[in-house]
Amino acid sequence: MPSSTITYSDNTSGWTSFWDYYPDWMIGLSNVFYSWKNGSLYQHNLSNTRCIFYGVQVPSIVKTIFNEDPFTTKMFKSVSLDSTNPWTATLSTDLDYGSIASTEYVEKEGTWFGYARALNSTSNSLNLLSTQGVGSISTVSGATATFGFNITTRLGVGDRLYVNNAFIGTIVSATATTITITGGVFTGLAGGYVRIEKNSIAESYGLRGYYMDIELEITSQNEVELFSISSSLFKSYM
Fold it and tell me: Do 139 and 147 meet the contact criterion of CB atoms below 8 Å apart?
């Protein structure tokens, strides 16, 4: 674990924050906070520039968890921030992972709203709604697989394709009995079972799970205020 400094608050009678600076020594004198690092003396809070310690810019990070009705599987659709600025959000549940980039929020009446976007590259789970079975391959030819039946699964360009639980490529086209991919080939996979994962960003499924951990991060030298964090969710009936 990286070295860090923790602070205690007399007002809350508890340890409230972790700081990225790790001084050799520190002391308070006449309501001024000083620290020593590598033989140099530093005065803290000397200017309005934020999150720079010993000449290094570091991000501000806030971590929390949404755990309403913990015995029910839920779908977490969005995150709302009552903040002066949008934050990058890293999201995780017991079933999936996702994120919201700071540029993906929409500001409405002073609140930032962002849809939870599942990470397809890590969403390799048979428990997710976005995972659907296709069937066994009959014959193969390079990047095209042919099936001995009409495909009834709803396929789309950009869907991720797996054969026997191994990622093979991304769908670029499909007919009633064939699927063509990019990024791989079907060579040697005749008879293998195919399943696909829908593009969860385009489909806007959100993240499914009993709870959702959220980590907010922002890098700024200016003052940023965060007043509250909330999530739009509903019960999953899968």
Answer: no
> Shortest CA distance to 112 belongs to which of 226, 12, 200?
226
The answer to whether 225 and 174 are in contact (CB under 8 A) is no
pLDDT of residue 124: 47
Round to whole Å and give the CA distance between 122 and 165.
Answer: 13
In tens, the pLDDT along 33-79 reads 899 999 899 998 888 888 888 888 889 999 999 998 888 989 899 99
The candidate with the shortest Cα–Cα distance to 89, out of 53, 62, 122, 52, is 62
155 three-state secondary structure:
coil
User: CB-based contacts of 152: which residues, under 8 Å, 6+ apart?
Assistant: none
Q: Provide the whole-model pTM.
A: 0.67
Residue type, 156: G
Within a 13 Å sphere around the CA of 50, how many CA atoms are in the beta-carbon half? 10
- Say how far apart CA 7 and CA 181 lie, in whole Å: 53
